[in-house]
Amino acid sequence: MSCGQIILDYGLRSIGIGAQLLPRGEFSLCHQFTLIGSGLIWNIYFAVLALATGFFAATGLALAKSARARWLRKPAEWFIFLFRGSPLFIQFFLAYEMLVLLPRGGFDIFGMTVATSWLTKAWAGALIVLFLNTAAYSAEIFYGALMAVPKGDIEAADAYGMTGWKKFRWVIWPTMLRLAWPSYTNEAIFLFHATTLVFFSGFPSFQQKGDALYYAKFFADKTFNPFVPYPIAAFYFVLLTLSLIGLFGWVNRRLNRHLPGARPRLRIRPQIIR
Predict the structure, then answer these.
(1) In a domain, 265, yes or no
(2) pLDDT given for residue 26 in this prediction
């Protein structure tokens, strides 16, 4: 079987497209690169959705933690402390055990049955845990940046007559992002790497089609050689990390493009006439 055919058969197997059965007896490098790369789709799914939703939740938590009202500040502090103070691995197990206790038939609300069985699957339950975890860590980063916003910027906004949402939208929030973005980049990288813990968390995979670590373990068990599949998985995560650094670096340059000393954009101007 050619490598191109292997990619067609197994390239999207992790999401239920292509060959249903795993290869038997033949484990070429192409098989391993293709299937581990296919499983990486789930790691990207977990990380992207958790980051996208956790970003806005973290902003709200940071604002709540900085609020003067005790009823708003204390729950945010407890939430952040709980998820930052406990290991992510333990959070996966506790969440799964709690979700399993929900009634299998769901709840009856206003005459409608709301199913709960989907919450025990990895695509939903593990995603919820990652969302809550990154929201707590990111909220602490944003809170520190919020406290570091220069008072001069806020006083200038007051002098211009900005109040409430307008001041937050145009002055406080952009400055907070600029200050927090380097640390938030590290949190995003950590979250991408933390998606590998879903394989060990107890959440069942989608139709027995797991993530990158699922396929890496499959090849390690079949070939009795862990020094090929696991480095392949690490190689994919290195590529993802470099892509993430490039993307977040671009956002950082956009956030700081108006500041003096920002790195200028590379421009090629060939000197045709001297």
Answers:
(1) no
(2) 80
218 has pLDDT over 60? yes
Provide the residue range defining the domain that includes 170: 40-255
CATH number, position 140: 1.10.3720.10
Domain count, the chain: 1
Q: Which pairs from 252-258 meet CB under 8 Å and 24+ separation?
A: 252/178, 252/181, 252/182, 252/185, 255/174, 255/177, 255/178, 255/181, 256/178
In a domain, 1, yes or no: no
What is the per-residue pLDDT for 274?
Answer: 41
User: What is the DSSP secondary-structure string of 156-204?
Assistant: HHHHTT--HHHHIIIIIHHHHHHHHHHHHHHHHHHHHHHGGGGGGSSPP
Q: Is 58:83 a contact under the CB 8 Å cutoff?
A: no
Contact 201, 126 (CB under 8 A): yes
Q: What is the pLDDT of residue 204?
A: 74
The DSSP letter of residue 109 is E
Mean pLDDT on 122-131: 94
Could you tell me if 58 and 135 are in contact, meaning their C-beta atoms sit under 8 angstroms apart?
yes
Start-to-end Cα distance in the chain: 59
Q: How many residues does the chain have?
A: 274
Q: 203 and 121 in contact (C-beta within 8 Å)? A: yes
Calpha distance 222→117 (Å, rounded): 32
Query: How does pLDDT run across 40-86, given as a tens digit for each residue?
Result: 999 999 999 999 999 999 999 999 999 999 999 999 999 999 999 99
Q: In this structure, is residue 19 part of a structural domain? A: no
- Asked if residue 165 belongs to a domain, the reply is yes
Say which residue, 246 or 108, is predicted with more confidence: 246
Please tell me the distance from the alpha carbon of residue 169 to that of residue 102, in angstroms, as a whole number.
40
